[in-house]
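Give me the fold.
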Amino acid sequence: MKYLLLLSFMASGLILSAQQETVFGNVDVIGGFGGPFIEVGSINGQVGADVGGGGALMLDAFFLGGYGQGTSYPDAVINDIDRNIKFAHGGLWFGYVKDQYKMVHMFSSLKLGWGKVRLRSDGDPDENDRVFVLTPEIGVEVNLTDFFKLSLAGGYRVVSGVSKLQGLDNGDFSSPVGILTFRFGGFDNNWEDW
């Protein structure tokens, strides 16, 4: 009797879900991508590169995914102590790709993430602070093969939440950025017909 009741609940759920309207009901999944990227920007007035990666699901002309990145290149002298700055963040990655079936096409995206800044030095305790990072970008993408794309973008990294680090504030981490991305993956070739 328990199994019959369980089966009837499952059948009812399937029938209701087949008739249910959804917010994204008309959106087609046409592919996905993933790969590494290099972001060149400035931290504490020093230009350097963050290395990271991400991936996303293509929903028609939009994509939705996640990313993560970090660096430990900059240094800061605070109270006559040389400190190494470690900066890492990750989160959601949203974007729009215009005419992605063309060899060269435009795209825009927004990375919305959370992370941590750590000041390290020999013999002194580390200082840590949690941060929020917002990076809008716009760029050009080139389809090199069916499954490999190269993109170059420019944007601005906005950092907030830096309050516990001596001698550093949000402005030391906010910066214009240039981003080189290697995207592996593809989309449904019939997508251009919709």
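The chain has one domain: 36-179.
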